[in-house]
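[SOLVED] Predicted holo structure with zinc ion

Edit: marking solved, answer below. Original request kept for reference. I posted the sequence and ligand SMILES and asked for the 3D complex as structure tokens.
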Amino acid sequence: MGLHNFRIAFLVLVLCCIPVAYGWGIDGHLIICRLAQPRLSKSAADAVSQLLPAYADNDLGSLCSWADRVKFRYHWSSPLHYINTPDNLCTYQYKRDCKDEDGIEDRCVAGAINNYTTQLLSYGNGNSASEYNLTEALLFLSHFIGDIHQPLHVGFTSDRGANTIDVRWYRRKEVLHHVWDSNIIETAEKRFYDSNVEELIDTLQKNITTVWSKQAKAWEACAKTACPDVYASEGIKAACDWAYKGVEEGSVLNDDYFLSRVPVVNLRLAQGGVRLAATLNRIFG
Ligand SMILES: [Zn+2]
């Protein structure tokens, strides 16, 4: 390989592999959208297939991480992926917490879920020149219902959802936030599912219809069209009880942490998928 080709190969490698700092990793979002799509009602499934761009081939999962990829182009959207709550309180309140760093209200993941739900409710109004881009609204909503189920997306303010807490994941240097975005899922895939995300999705899918079937009904319940406040309150509680618990700067996280937390991650992924479907079903009737 000539030096020039080598440089290009190196550049491609670097560009492809820069980790994205916030949000479930690609697999987390893929899992949630894949769990959701088969649960859609006929009318919701039709709307989703209408709104997805042709190249997605009616696979919502393929575009579930789109909102992370446009963060740099749509700079305004960055604060919409998370909520900062007061340090160590372990509670969430919309009025108190749903704002961005400049204090602008409604700019957090719960506010974004409400906003894109409202936009999507205009679908099929017969007004084909909707003032909104409903394809983007669908992709944002599908992504944000995922993010709000990542416990550290409803984290403490001073550590930016554990983005400033350095730990070791087994022997690798990571920040705690990334452990919950990606490492727990990746380690589970490697250890239990032959490194095959499809097998993990199948297992979660089966659990939703068997051992979790009663609970899944309760996960769906929502007196409004969207219920992000319920999910955010569960999120900060899980962050305190499981993600932050027992971890400090420099902690080494290994099997003890992994094996006790992987059920929490599985539960949140399943809830995210069930609730994304239920929300889209309520929106599209
Ligand atoms: Zn995100």
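OP edit: The pocket of zinc ion is lined by residues 22-23, 67-68, 81, 143, 147 (CB under 6 Å). Thanks to everyone who chimed in.
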